[in-house]
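Q: I'm writing up a methods section and want to include an example of the input and output format. Could you take the sequence below and give the corresponding predicted structure tokens, formatted cleanly so I can copy it straight into the document?
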Amino acid sequence: MAEREMAYRLFAREFNDSQFQISPGADQSGEQDLHSPNFLVTRAGAKVNRLFIAGVVTEVEDIGNQKGAENELWRARISDPTGTFTVYSGNYQPEASVFLSTVEVPSYVTVVGKVRSYEPGDGSVFVSVRPEEINIADENIRNRWVVETARLTLDRLDIFEDVLLSGMSETGIVEFLSGEGTPSYVKEGICLAMDYYHTDVDYLKDIRAEIRNALVTIDTGLSSDDGSQSDAESLILELLEQMNEGKGVEYALLLKEAGLNDVSAEEVDSAIRSLLSRGHVYEPKVGFLRIVA
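A: Here is the clean output for your methods example:
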């Protein structure tokens, strides 16, 4: 029996940016060993088979009738401060399916599950998580997850940036990473990400900025002394309620309307991150926001 892979921590932003899945168990003929794990390689240099995530369930839907292949199939959206994980649970995850069918939305949860990717054939790749275990959590658990995930991710980004700026050869990079005592999932992930994504320093800086914003959302000092942040959040919720026509509100339109109410783009972004992290709003699709019912 194959040894179970460790469950690693990733933020939703990094996870959703990923599209490179590898199957080390495939032989030279391309035949796949059914017992060999599949890995997702992220653009920021992680190689993972299983994830441990924490966030807010913002949406749960029974889509079994839409798919046909499974009698029972649940889709859930779980938000962290950087984005949203998509989780699918079907016949082979009975406990997770029962959980999703009864969980109150929104709720804080933790999930351990396997990564999955789907390629519809148009060149795009959709990633998701198949849950092995889901549990109710609370804000403190979610906040500790954010802090620890930030620490581990920033450590990996530092190593990756050192490699990119070093100008070393491929052999030199492998020797450098081995000498640093880098975990195998990072060492292999960085090498694979460089080869497949051609990751650059600008992308790593972008992820760092996303992590800093994530940490701000759990800072107890988030609101300003004059209460302007709370006012901005209240305005965003009010605008989302007024402008929603059933499919959510486009971010650009929300930003424009907030500006007419003398709320700056920075205040809007900060308010939205805070509302996302607490499960008050979610993204039904990229670039759109909607209030959690």
